[in-house]
């Protein structure tokens, strides 16, 4: 399965960075290996906490109406950086606790399956991710996003709303935020017979 390609657009004369965001279905996150392949130094900061899903996230996850103040999702917020470029991508992921609570994958970056990506982690608890969906839009960065990405107030960002599905069940949704001025998004994938075998 192929998908989002973050293309870093540098200053004149700099090489353009092209990396495949999605690898084969069972692969983990490509961020670390992709950066290392280029001889660059990447870093990943994250925090995970439980919360009650806000209305928009509830709708995207297909959760029932909130019951009191119970926490029902694990939210993990990531900041991707490289030593030479600094911060360049935010990713916030939400997973239903009804699926993961009490399992080895409750914390996406903890335990035996830490950092191995949504499909592989979900497969470990019997949920086979067989589809993903992404929707791309552009808007002005929030104050918090601009500060974390070290971009100016009023800068435009591209937002990729992602979902991972196991059959009809949404097992994870995420918002990926990148600066529009320095990032190009390109999608590719197999067609015909190649699509049937990928």
Automatic annotation (TrEMBL):
<feature type="domain" description="UbiC transcription regulator-associated">
    <location>
        <begin position="37"/>
        <end position="184"/>
    </location>
</feature>
<protein>
    <submittedName>
        <fullName>UTRA domain-containing protein</fullName>
    </submittedName>
</protein>
<feature type="region of interest" description="Disordered">
    <location>
        <begin position="28"/>
        <end position="49"/>
    </location>
</feature>
<dbReference type="Pfam" id="PF07702">
    <property type="entry name" value="UTRA"/>
</dbReference>
<dbReference type="InterPro" id="IPR011663">
    <property type="entry name" value="UTRA"/>
</dbReference>
<dbReference type="InterPro" id="IPR028978">
    <property type="entry name" value="Chorismate_lyase_/UTRA_dom_sf"/>
</dbReference>
<dbReference type="InterPro" id="IPR050679">
    <property type="entry name" value="Bact_HTH_transcr_reg"/>
</dbReference>
